[in-house]
Amino acid sequence: MTNHILTKIGLIVGTFLIGLMGILGIVDNRIDKKCANLGTTVPKVVAVFETSLASKITKTATSMTLVNGTDNAGNPLSGYMCFVIDEGSANEEFVCGNASSTSVTGMKRGIDPVNPGTEVDSLKHSHRRGASVKVTDYPQLGILTRIINGDDTFPNIISYETSSLSFTDDAQIITKKYADDLTYSGAPDASETVKGIVEQATLSELGSGVSSGDTTAPLFVPNQYFSKSSSATTIVPVTGSDGKLSSGFIDQTADYNWSGTHTFSGNNTFSGDNTFSGTATISHMFFDEKGFYDFGNGSDGDITISSNTTLTRDMYYNNLTVN
Q1: Is the pTM of this model over 0.90?
Q2: Are 231 and 242 in contact (CB under 8 A)?
Q3: What CA–CA distance (Å, rounded) separates 102 from 63?
């Protein structure tokens, strides 16, 4: 009995305290709000649109059907839009959803009257069939206000009507083109002592040997023009891993003038007319302007003769020294 009396006293005191806190404004009357992922998408606006519900909806419904789904110009409703249901009544409620003619789906219910990005459970109501439905501009204005004040972000990339704009104040928002132009115009042309802007050379520019292109910046050779094997587009030959160039880079049908001293090792074939001036040594044959002299293949090795020696056969010395 005592416990029952104490329980009643506790309930009475608790109720009194909660009521007093509500009167004093200590308890937030929107304490039951929960954030919804409305984001900062700006809803579409349709001027002076009013219709009614084709069927009733509960306070938890996320879709509704309208009696009329076209605006005054005969265009069907389309896109993310916001409505006020039962405007001016105790059940007045702001909702947002994806409209497609008379169908509105994916609705956010009980939109907060201060923060349009928030749903409030206590502001969600059931609505009868025939309840008035109007397109409202509140969420749009609230969202735009928060974006402009920096409380929310722009949902999409913003742009100007033209990119040919001039900016003079540090607080102005510039275009990408303006930023790009600043980057390019602020850098010098590259040189041997200054890092800066260069221009990629074309194949014809590379072949002609010009130092700069249309932009007046120094030209650089793109990687595709380098190769260790010859081709029609290879302008700059590159040595292989052995440090030597491929023979394909040399026109072997052209005429060449070889001056100075040259050594040809291995088997070499000279076709056509070849003129050797001066003294030329090829393998184990020696020739000059008077003719060829065959000293064999050197199979008898190196030898030094210091006394009279009688040869009984042809000898093929590699090196012969006579003292």
Answers
A1: no
A2: no
A3: 11
Say which residue the tokens 């070499």 belong to.
268
Best CA proximity match to 127, nearest among 67, 62, 53, 191: 53
Q: What is the pLDDT of residues 175-223, one digit of tens each?
A: 888 888 777 666 788 888 988 888 888 888 887 888 888 888 899 888 8
> β-strands 132-135, 50-52: how paired?
antiparallel
Q: Would you call 316 helix, strand, or coil by DSSP?
A: coil
What DSSP line would sit under 268-308, residue for residue? ----S-----S-EEETTEEEETTEEEE-TT-TT-EEEE-S-
Q: How far is CA 83 from CA 88, 98, 99, 120, 126, in A?
A: 13, 11, 10, 16, 15
**Could you tell me if 317 and 295 are in contact, meaning their C-beta atoms sit under 8 angstroms apart?**
yes
Distance of CA 31 to the CA centre of its chain: 44
Gap between the Cα atoms of 95 and 64, Å rounded: 10
